[in-house]
């Protein structure tokens, strides 16, 4: 069983997120799962309805959470830069984004 199966989260899953007051923030799609320093992280972006797809060149907001058991834990401010750099490496490896030095 892979880490993704253990956590119950897979690429392409749609996850509904609430804010700290329980208000629905919206639906988000899992675009990456990765490990860093012994912890698992998930990258999400706003779910795009295929019928209402925006322009391909539009920049997507990406949110990263630590996976702790069944919960998604927001990143601490101090770890954001390091985790987003790791996410960039992961996305470059699967050729979703172009390396900056090209």
Number of strands: 5
Helix content: 10-25%
* Averaged pLDDT: 81
Distance between the termini: 37 Å
The helix/strand order is HEEEEEH
Q: What summary fits the major beta sheet?
A: 5 strands, antiparallel
Radius of gyration: 14 Å
Kindly report the spatial arrangement of strands forming the biggest sheet: 1-2-3-4-5
What's the helix count?
2
What structural class do the secondary elements suggest? alpha+beta
Protein name: DUF1292 domain-containing protein
Structural overview:
The radius of gyration is 14 Å and the shape is globular. Strands 1-2-3-4-5 form a 5-stranded antiparallel β-sheet. It contains 2 helices and 5 strands; from the N terminus they run αβββββα. The protein is of the alpha+beta class and 102 residues long. The protein has one domain.
Quick take:
The protein has helices at 3-7, 77-93; strands spanning 14-18, 24-36, 39-46, 62-68, 71-74.
Q: Top keywords for this entry?
A:
disordered N terminus, 5-stranded antiparallel sheet, about 100 residues, alpha+beta, 5 strands, globular, about 20% helix
Topology:
Elements: H1 3-7, E1 14-18, E2 24-36, E3 39-46, E4 62-68, E5 71-74, H2 77-93
Antiparallel strand pairs: 1-2, 2-3, 3-4, 4-5
């Amino acid at each position: 069983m892979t880490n993704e199966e253990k956590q119950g989260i897979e690429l392409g899953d749609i996850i509904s997120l609430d804010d700290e007051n329980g208000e629905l923030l919206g639906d988000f799609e899992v675009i990456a799962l990765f490990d860093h320093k012994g912890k698992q992280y998930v990258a999400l972006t706003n779910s795009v309805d295929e019928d209402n797809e925006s322009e391909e060149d539009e920049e997507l907001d990406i949110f990263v959470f630590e996976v702790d058991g069944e919960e998604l834990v927001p990143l601490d401010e101090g770890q954001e830069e390091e985790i987003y750099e790791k996410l960039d490496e992961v996305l470059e490896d699967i050729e979703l984004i172009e390396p900056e030095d090209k």
